[in-house]
Design brief:
293 residues, single chain, 3 domains, 3-stranded antiparallel beta sheet, 5 strands, rod-shaped, alpha+beta
Length: 293
């Protein structure tokens, strides 16, 4: 590095200097001249570049770095979406398992029930307890209750029924009779039913959410590829204008910066994310480096 202190001394100050100080100043001046001479030699090795080429260089450098930053942004988005997809997948499995456990929320059982069936003949029945007291009654058919005729029915012991113990006055004739039939009934376990329906509904919601994230993830991946192509094309054009300019240095510096942040990061989730980004950026840098061979 050049020491510029000798350039700051005024001519009128030199005459009054002590010899020792003049000697130091002369030495610094000589060293500065040597550095300037070296700079001139280095600069003379570079070919001349026109103003238009400088504009092209600036534009292509900006394009390449913009592509690199776009790639970084979409890589971060892609990784975040992968984490989200993984989380949704776990949720879907849990919801599916809950639905499977609670899907049999109905229980079928058989019970005996009393039903009334039609008959081609009349019977004596009790209106109070719905009992068939005398099937195929031989008395004259009557539709009236509280009829004295029922005191003469075979089921009666004077005024009381031997079958149901009710008074004759509550008995009547009808061409029907009660029968016992076995029926299958379905009972619903409300708690299980609710869990099944909620799990099934949320499973569908999560499935749609997962599909959306997968599409967004694919879009991010395509954007990364597009950005990488943009970088490659800009670097190619940049090398045509100035083969000595190596934009890879800036990219490698950024990767080292990310690596330094990774080394000092304690959070495992953030470390995993940064590590994935660094790997992807390193691949981009590797593809660019092949252009300089």
């Amino acid at each position: 590095m050049m020491d510029n202190s000798s350039f700051n001394v005024k001519l009128e100050d030199i005459s009054g200097m002590r010899l020792s100080k003049k000697a130091i100043l002369t030495s610094k001046w000589a060293l500065s001249m040597e550095v300037i001479e070296e700079l001139i030699k280095d600069l003379s090795q570079y070919k001349e570049v026109g103003t238009k080429d400088f504009v092209t260089m600036r534009d292509e450098i900006n394009n390449a770095l913009k592509g690199y930053n776009d790639a970084k942004i979409n890589l971060k988005n892609w990784i975040a979406l992968q984490d989200k997809i993984t989380g949704i997948s776990i949720e879907r499995k849990l919801l599916d398992a809950t639905a499977e456990i609670n899907k049999n929320y109905t229980i079928k059982s058989k019970v005996w029930q009393t039903e009334t069936v039609e008959t081609s003949y009349h019977n004596t029945l009790c209106s109070r307890c719905n009992t068939l007291c005398h099937e195929r009654c031989g008395l004259q058919y009557t539709i009236n209750t509280n009829a004295n005729i029922f005191t003469g029915c075979a089921c009666m012991d004077d005024v009381k029924c031997n079958v149901c113990s009710c008074d004759y006055t509550v008995h009547f004739h009808d061409k029907k009779k009660p029968v016992r039939v076995e029926k299958e009934i379905t009972s619903v376990l409300a708690g299980m039913k609710e869990k099944y329906e909620v799990s099934t509904k949320n499973y569908e919601i999560k499935s749609k959410e997962e599909s959306k994230c997968i599409l967004e993830s694919e879009d991010c991946n395509n954007k990364v590829k597009s950005a990488q192509q943009k970088i490659t094309e800009s670097v190619k054009r940049l090398l045509v204008v100035n083969p000595d300019y190596n934009i890879l240095n800036e990219i490698e510096y950024d990767i080292k910066k990310n690596q330094h942040e990774l080394d000092n990061e304690k959070d495992m989730k953030i470390r995993t994310e940064k590590n994935s980004i660094i790997k992807a950026l390193t691949e981009i840098a590797h593809s660019i480096s092949s252009l300089f061979k």
